[in-house]
């Protein structure tokens, strides 16, 4: 009897560890964080419109004056130095206050965008993580199948040499063995590619994902109600919140446009000193002027060439566009949530069906081997049964990873995905002394010579 199994590395990295490393390295996420910081800084700029402005001014000049009168001409030069500080405080500027409110909304939009980027990173890391595990399972199963087919090939050759079977059995086994060799090469290449993708996310080479523990304990779907997931999506999905905030920003833009018809009122305060060492053009003696000014400034627009009216029409149309975008986003999120939920339910059902199919395929393989030994089955029947068993095992492994990833994608679809959701998946991994999942279960190959059919 020959046992074929895949030897997993002793030390591996959990999904949480991989995600933590990717969060500090992934260029896409880092770019989203930089955009978030930039948006916050841009939003803070809107405060300037409601805060006072203060300026310090200073200057120096020289004036040369030539004065000609009937019968005389005089030339005189004098210097002037000035320094002052002036402040302006907006008292009534509706457009500035609307812009300030827009800045607050844009800061919230930036947070929603960053949340979406974080959820995307969680799914991308998990996808790469499970892709590596699935490729490892596939390679392990192909190698186990190669061992089983090699045993069947050796048995067929021995039986042909002793004359109990025809050359057809040996050639069929040889063809199947060559096919498995090609599949092994493809599986090895696929595993290397999947590891490169994971390493690129993490920023280091040699990432080793931890396989599932045995027995496999997939996290249950809770709550098992599609309407609950959909209602949560409508209430808190970051894309919907972003669209709602976008509608608020559009409404404030309408207020800014309408404010073009309204007056503005500012308070002014200034203190200026002017020094004239040689006097001025009207006073010959030295002088210094100190002036303190306090006042208000009113500006009432009367006519701007219909620019304000057309700007209001434009912003109203854009507000309608934002309202339609919000509705489209809500519908899209609801549809994606329902589709993802149904896909997860289907994947969970496939896992149960494939687990039953695995048991049935194992029984069918043993039955074909027994039939081959007693002469009621031929070699190709055993080879086909082996292929069916290993294909079922591969499909089962992929289905299990689809369920784990589907749980995350469902939470991403309804907008509730957070890094803490990875802990439930880590609980299903082979950690804390649990045994890794052996995707390639031991395969028994009889060495007894079958009877000729």
Quick summary:
The chain has 453 residues and is of the alpha+beta class. The chain contains 9 helices and 6 strands, in the order ααββααβααββαααβ. Helices cover 60% and strands 15% of the residues.
Write the layout of secondary structure elements.
Layout: H1 15-23, H2 27-44, E1 53-69, E2 72-92, H3 94-162, H4 167-202, E3 213-214, H5 226-236, H6 238-258, E4 264-276, E5 287-299, H7 307-374, H8 379-413, H9 422-426, E6 435-436
Antiparallel strand pairs: 1-2, 2-4, 3-6, 4-5
Tell me about this structure.
With 453 residues, this protein is α+β, with helices and mostly antiparallel strands. The chain has a single domain (15-63, 93-262, 301-436), classed as Outer membrane efflux proteins (OEP) (Up-down Bundle), CATH 1.20.1600.10. 60% of the residues lie in helices and 15% in strands. Helix 6 packs antiparallel against helix 7. The longest helix has 69 residues, at 94-162. The protein starts with 14 loop residues before the first helix and ends in a 17-residue tail after the last strand. Residues 1-10 and 432-453 have low confidence and may be disordered.
């Amino acid at each position: 009897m020959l046992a074929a199994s895949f030897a997993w590395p002793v030390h591996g990295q959990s999904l949480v560890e991989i995600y933590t490393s990717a969060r500090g390295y992934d260029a896409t996420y880092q770019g989203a964080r930089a955009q978030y910081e930039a948006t916050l800084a841009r939003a803070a700029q809107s405060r300037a419109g409601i805060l006072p402005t203060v300026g310090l001014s200073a200057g120096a000049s020289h004036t040369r004056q030539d004065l000609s009168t009937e019968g005389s001409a005089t030339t005189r030069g004098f210097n002037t130095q000035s320094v002052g500080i002036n402040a302006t405080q907006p008292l009534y500027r509706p457009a500035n206050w609307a812009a300030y409110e827009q800045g607050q909304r844009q800061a919230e939009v930036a947070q929603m965008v960053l949340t979406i980027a974080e959820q995307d990173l969680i799914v991308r890391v998990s996808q790469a993580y499970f892709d590596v595990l699935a490729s490892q399972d596939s390679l392990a199963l192909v190698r186990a199948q190669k061992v089983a087919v090699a045993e069947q090939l050796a048995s067929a050759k021995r039986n042909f040499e002793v004359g109990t079977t025809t050359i057809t059995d040996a050639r069929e086994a040889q063809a199947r063995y060559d096919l498995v060799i090609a599949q092994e090469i493809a599986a090895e290449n696929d595993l290397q590619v999947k590891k490169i993708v994971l390493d690129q996310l993490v920023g280091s080479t040699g990432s080793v994902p931890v396989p599932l523990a045995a027995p496999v304990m997939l996290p249950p779907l809770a709550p098992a109600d599609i309407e609950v997931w959909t209602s949560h999506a409508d209430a808190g999905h970051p894309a919907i919140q972003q669209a709602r905030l976008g509608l608020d920003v559009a409404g404030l833009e309408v207020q800014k446009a309408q404010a073009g018809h309204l007056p503005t009122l500012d308070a002014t305060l200034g203190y200026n000193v002017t020094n004239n060492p040689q006097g001025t053009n009207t006073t010959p003696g030295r002088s210094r002027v100190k002036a303190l000014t306090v006042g208000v400034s009113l500006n009432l627009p009367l006519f701007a060439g219909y620019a304000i009216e057309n700007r209001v029409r434009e912003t109203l149309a854009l507000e309608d566009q934002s309202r339609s975008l919000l509705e489209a986003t809500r519908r899209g999120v609801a549809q994606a949530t329902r589709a993802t939920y149904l896909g997860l339910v289907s994947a969970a059902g496939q896992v149960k069906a494939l687990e039953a199919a695995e048991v049935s395929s194992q029984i069918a393989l043993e039955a074909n081997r027994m039939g081959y030994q007693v002469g009621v089955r031929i070699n190709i029947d055993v080879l086909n049964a082996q292929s069916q068993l290993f294909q079922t095992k591969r499909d089962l492994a992929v289905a299990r990873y689809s369920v784990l990833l589907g749980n995350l994608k469902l939470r991403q679809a309804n907008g509730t995905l957070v890094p803490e959701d990875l802990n439930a998946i880590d609980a299903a991994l082979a950690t804390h002394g649990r045994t890794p999942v052996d995707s390639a279960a031991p395969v028994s190959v009889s060495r007894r010579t079958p009877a000729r059919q």
